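Escalated from tier 1: iron/sulfur cluster holo job.
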Amino acid sequence: KNLYKYYHMPRKKFFSKETSIKAVNGVSFTLRKGETFGLVGESGSGKSTTGEIIVQLIKQTSGQVLYKGKDVSKFNALQLKVWRRKVQIVFQDPYASLNPKKTVQWILREPLIIHKIGNRREQDKRIIDMLHDVGLDESFLKRYPHELSGGQRQRVVIAAALILHPEFVVIDEGVSALDVSVQAQILNLLKALQKKYRLTYLFISHDLNVVQYFCDRIAVMYLGEIVEMGTVSDLDEPKHPYTKALFSSIPTRDVNTSETVLSGEVPSASAIPEGCPFHTRCPFVQERCKHEKPVKHELTTEHTVRCHLYD
Ligand code: SF4
Ligand code: MG
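Tier 2 regenerated the structure:
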């Protein structure tokens, strides 16, 4: 709710102005139990930062993360410990998130030890069950990450995230580093696991194809703000010029689609344009867009858009 994350940069010279990077700039949304909510945008849009704030890997500058209506920042030590079990994050790069010197068995046992779950035998059983759940087996127990393929490594990362039986998982570019054929396998695995363990997913990706395939609802982020949000079918007919441009950069077989082509780069988060943050790249820009910040319009109860064209 109303999340902001600003990073203050030290002044380069004593007389120069202090700059701040506005990574997340007033983001609010609600995740519903059992759904897959997609956060999509170009790099630098603030989607990863939003995900990391939600699991409280980093602290927001202001705003709240509410879990079942309760402010996570006000949790006591015990509540926080329970919360840490229920909420997990899976990162893009399985090389970086797996300790190269530890076996798969150790990697999967460590969270159980930290959270004091089961005795050794019970842990062994849980580890083997989890390996089967992610399409691996006992033969992987003694292997090291470098002995695995990219897809196998990502399966181990997923197993490590799910071994505590969380309720909610943030998947940050969870398949982006994989070959397309392996991507589909991992996405299908994540779907199956979601069903089995009744998981709620926050799925962060720059890849619209993947998000459309995988998610129930989607929020499109640009320079730290959600510019459009709706169900997957709402976003089949995108309303915000930025979403339109993003969607038309997906290659289609239909040559008759009217394309909106994005020009230029995303401005720096330390110099967000006045008015509508997208106005420097928008093909529909009007004079007022350069000064006046657009408000959020509810096109339907699910579908919202932040753009003066809908005033
Ligand atoms: Fe484009 Fe103006 Fe809408 Fe921003 S508010 S997206 S600049 S038309
Ligand atoms: Mg990212």
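The two ends are 24 Å apart (CA to CA).
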